[in-house]
Structure formats: structure tokens, C-alpha cells
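Q: what sequence does this backbone want?
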């Protein structure tokens, strides 16, 4: 058993860490305050190949793996969760469904573009009455003269309305089957919808508590027509396929949350050494030291949990429960560390421009997105036979 990173992974960590500190961090507070999408930062991430990390070179990727993506996410999220979630959603939700379930033709059409990072994809699962219970999907897709005609609305779709958004993969009910007992079963499928298709509309962006520089919109789909060949994967397997994407995505979110938790530790150590009170720096008070020590323990535990889940995934072993555990502990570590870090910063922790206060607002969604804390607990309990 060895959790030490190979030289290749370590080089990636060092490169992304330097980029995060020197390019991302200096503009983070500005984009957060203005709620503006960081196009220039994303463009540089694209040039670095970050959006292609887990994809083979034949599809325009970097030939790396999902763990490499996680390592990059951790480093970015230390300083800016909005930038990290833009990468996470672009790769693991936007491009990965095409890579996992697409035909050769679909992969050739979309992957080089999405892996280049010069275009973004989104993942349209959630609806107003279909969140944790995604089977509540009401959006419909009817096959008419060789085209899917899609109608419905989606909520909270990341990367769905930027200037470089090109694709949103949506779940839709493609048929209903009435069982013998009279109950109705929905056939849910996934369909690729280029964002310039007439009838596709990204509505006004949400005014969020955090992740202010990431792009999140409700979507309206009105008589959106796409070719029958835009069906992604097997008809009727859409729900199952999306659940698989979410299992992987939870490891990526855990990595992002680990970065947030670690960022809070780093900021707190710096501040504790500088800030003077009662004639000494506050870091000399044992209560502050203990707080930071506990924060470090949380970040470390979260990291081990996502390393474990990722290593199982890469080894082709079952990883669903480990991904849920990683998402659970890392999300809570980020939120707990953000609360402790803002306490260490005193009044300044309540001022928006500080990284720790941004982490305080940003981290809440880590206990909700890609499966709430309660959903992770349900999945873990189910695995325990409960
Ligand atoms: C910023 C942001 C970005 C997002 N990006 C995307 C995206 O790109 N694509 C996408 O499809 N979605 C996205 N989402 C949606 C997100 O995944 C959902 O908000 C999340 O899954 C929860 O669904 P919900 O909001 O409908 O809450 P609900 O499912 O209504 O849950 C409400 C509460 O009830 C609890 N609950 C529900 N069922 C149970 C149960 N059986 N037992 C115990 N408790 C339960 C939940 O844990 C929660 O506390 C995003 C959301 C946000 C805020």
C-alpha cells in the first residue's frame, strides 16, 4: 500500500499549484465580486491541457487518467472553487458522458473540442421536481421523422450559458411503459443537445451564495430538434448512465472539497503567524493551534478518502461506496474548515474579499451538489445492508 504520488503526478500537482497561486488567485476575489466568468483563466487552463487530462490523445486529450484530473482540481480549489468546478463540470460532466457512452462518431465529433477546453459541455439532469430523486424527470423527447423533439426545463446546470458553451447532454423521458399493476415506468434516455440548436435557451444566471464565478443557469427546451443519432448510449439507459457519471463525479468533487479544506488550513497558518493580539501572534494560543491541527486532520482524511476511491476506480474495482464516503467526508471537511478558518480571521473572516470567507460561502454547495450528504449516507447505508 503506497499513497505516494509518482513523479508524473507530482509534476502535475506542482505545475497546477503554481498556476493556481500565480494566475488564478490574483483575480479570484474580483470575479467573485463581479459574478463574472473567468474566461482568461479558463483559456489558460485550456492551453495547459487541463480539460483533456483524462482522455486519450487520439481524442485530443493528454493521455492521463481520472486521478490526474482530481489532483488538478484539488490544487485549483485551494484558491478558487469556482475555477475548479468549471473544470470539474467541463470534464467529468460535460465531456465524460460522451467518452463513456458515445459512439465512435460522437466521440470524434465532440471530444477533441471539449478536451481542448476551448468549448464547454454541461450535464442537464436536475429539474424542479427531479433532484435527489432524478427519476422524477419530466422533460420529454419524442422521435418525430428521424429527429428527437425535446421539451422541458432543467435547473442549476453548470457551464450551460457561457460564451464558449457548445453542448449540454440532457436526460429526457423517451417513452412510458405501463406495468401489469397499472403503474407507469419511465424510459429515460440521454441526448446530446448542441447549445446553438433553436429552442435551447439558457435563462438568466442564478444569483448564488457562492461559486459566483462559475456559470449556472436554468434551461428551457422548447421544441428542440436534434437528429436521432444524438441519442447517447442505449435508449432507456440514460438514468443508469448518469448515475455512473455521478459516481465518478463524486471522487472529483471530493478532490475539489479536499483542496478547499487545505486552502483554509494554509490561509489560517499564514494569518495565525501574522495577526497580533495581547502582545503576541494569535498562532501562539493553543486554542488556535488546536483548531488548525484539527483542520489539517480533516483535509488529510479527505485526501486519503478520495485517493482510495480513485485508486479503486482506476484498478477496475467497485468504487461506488468509497466515492460516496470520499464525497461525504471531504464536503464536510471543507465546510467545517471554512467555518474554523473564518473564526480564526475574526472580523476579517466576514469580509468577502478574503479567501477564507469565499470558502465559507462556496463550501456549502459541496454538501449538496452531485448528491447531497443525505444521498451519500443512503448509499453507504444500503451497502451496509440497511
Ligand atoms: C451551483 C449548483 C450547480 C449545480 N450543477 C448541476 C449540473 O451541472 N447538472 C445538474 O444536473 N444538476 C446540478 N445541480 C443540482 C444539484 O445536483 C441538486 O441541487 C442536488 O442534487 C439536490 O437536488 P435538489 O436541489 O432538488 O434537492 P432535493 O432533492 O429536493 O433535496 C432537498 C433536501 O431533502 C433531502 N432528501 C431528498 N431525498 C431524501 C431522502 N430519500 N432521504 C433523506 N433526505 C432526502 C436532501 O438531502 C436535501 O437535504 C447544481 C446545483 C447547484 C446549486
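A:
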Amino acid at each position: 500500500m503506497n499513497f505516494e504520488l509518482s513523479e508524473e503526478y507530482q509534476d502535475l500537482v506542482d505545475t497546477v499549484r503554481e498556476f493556481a497561486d500565480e494566475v488564478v488567485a490574483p483575480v479570484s476575489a474580483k470575479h467573485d465580486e463581479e459574478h463574472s466568468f473567468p474566461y482568461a483563466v479558463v483559456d489558460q487552463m485550456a492551453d495547459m491541457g487541463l480539460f483533456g487530462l483524462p482522455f486519450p490523445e487520439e481524442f485530443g486529450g493528454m493521455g492521463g487518467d481520472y486521478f490526474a484530473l482530481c489532483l488538478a482540481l484539488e490544487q485549483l480549489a485551494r484558491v478558487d472553487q469556482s475555477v475548479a468546478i468549471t473544470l470539474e463540470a467541463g470534464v467529468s460532466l460535460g465531456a465524460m458522458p460522451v467518452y463513456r457512452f458515445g459512439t465512435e462518431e460522437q466521440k470524434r465529433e465532440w471530444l477533441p473540442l471539449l478536451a481542448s477546453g476551448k468549448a464547454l459541455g454541461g450535464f442537464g439532469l436536475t429539474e424542479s421536481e427531479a433532484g435527489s430523486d432524478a427519476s422524477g424527470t419530466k422533460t420529454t423527447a419524442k422521435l418525430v421523422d428521424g429527429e428527437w423533439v425535446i421539451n422541458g426545463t432543467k435547473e442549476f446546470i453548470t457551464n450551460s450559458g457561457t460564451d464558449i458553451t457548445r453542448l449540454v447532454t440532457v436526460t429526457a423521458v423517451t417513452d412510458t411503459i405501463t406495468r401489469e399493476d397499472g403503474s407507469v415506468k419511465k424510459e429515460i434516455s440521454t441526448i446530446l443537445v448542441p447549445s446553438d440548436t433553436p429552442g435551447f435557451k439558457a435563462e438568466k444566471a442564478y444569483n448564488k451564495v457562492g461559486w459566483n464565478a462559475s456559470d449556472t443557469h436554468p434551461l428551457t427546451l422548447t421544441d428542440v430538434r436534434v437528429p436521432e443519432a444524438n441519442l447517447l448510449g442505449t435508449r432507456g439507459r440514460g438514468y443508469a448512465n448518469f448515475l455512473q457519471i455521478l459516481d465518478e463525479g463524486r471522487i472529483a468533487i471530493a478532490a475539489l472539497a479536499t483542496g478547499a479544506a487545505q486552502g483554509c488550513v494554509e490561509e489560517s497558518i499564514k494569518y495565525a503567524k501574522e495577526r497580533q493580539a495581547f502582545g503576541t501572534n494569535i498562532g501562539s494560543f493553543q486554542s488556535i493551534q488546536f483548531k488548525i491541527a484539527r483542520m489539517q486532520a480533516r483535509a488529510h482524511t479527505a485526501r486519503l478518502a478520495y485517493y482510495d476511491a480513485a485508486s479503486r476506480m482506476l484498478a477496475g474495482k467497485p468504487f461506488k461506496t468509497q466515492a460516496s464516503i470520499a464525497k461525504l467526508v471531504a464536503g464536510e471537511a471543507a465546510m467545517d474548515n471554512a467555518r474554523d478558518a473564518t473564526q480564526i480571521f475574526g472580523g476579517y473572516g466576514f469580509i468577502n474579499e478574503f479567501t477564507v470567507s469565499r470558502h465559507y460561502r462556496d463550501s456549502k454547495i459541496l454538501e449538496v451538489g452531485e448528491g447531497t450528504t443525505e444521498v451519500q449516507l443512503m448509499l453507504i447505508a444500503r451497502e451496509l445492508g440497511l
